[in-house]
Amino acid sequence: MFDIGFWELLLIAIVSLLVAGPEKLPELVRDAGRWTRKLRRYVTQAKYEFEQQLRMDEVRDFTEQVEQMDKLMDVAPDKHGNTKTTDN
């Protein structure tokens, strides 16, 4: 996802240590982990919902195509030149 190497992580750790200090750094790392988990969970949920909606759209499109084929079969002549009729 991100192309972060060792040196970038080291730089982030040094800047964090200087800004937050050694006492608050473990708490900040825990908070960052919590936010990362929440973000991953949100992205996974959004992806799942998007895929479900896409599947529903595909099913709806397929159903419409089948209905169109049925309508065409109703008006299309059969092998003997007659049209298909429905009796109620």
Topology:
Layout: H1 6-20, H2 25-75
Structure characterization notes:
By secondary structure, the chain is mainly alpha-helical. Helix content is 75%, strand content 0%. The protein starts with 5 loop residues before the first helix and ends in a 13-residue tail after the last helix.
The tally of strands reads 0
Gap between N and C termini: 61 Å
Morphology: rod-shaped
Low-confidence stretches: none
What Rg is obtained from the alpha carbons, in whole angstroms? Answer: 30 Å
Percent in helix: over 70%
Largest β-sheet summary? none
Backbone structural class: mainly alpha
Report the average pLDDT across residues.
84
As a percent range, the share of strand residues is under 5%
Order of secondary-structure elements: HH
Tally the helices: what do you get?
2
Index terms:
88 residues; mainly alpha; single chain; 0% strand; 2 helices
Short structural description:
By secondary structure, the protein is an all-alpha fold. It has helices spanning 6-20, 25-75.
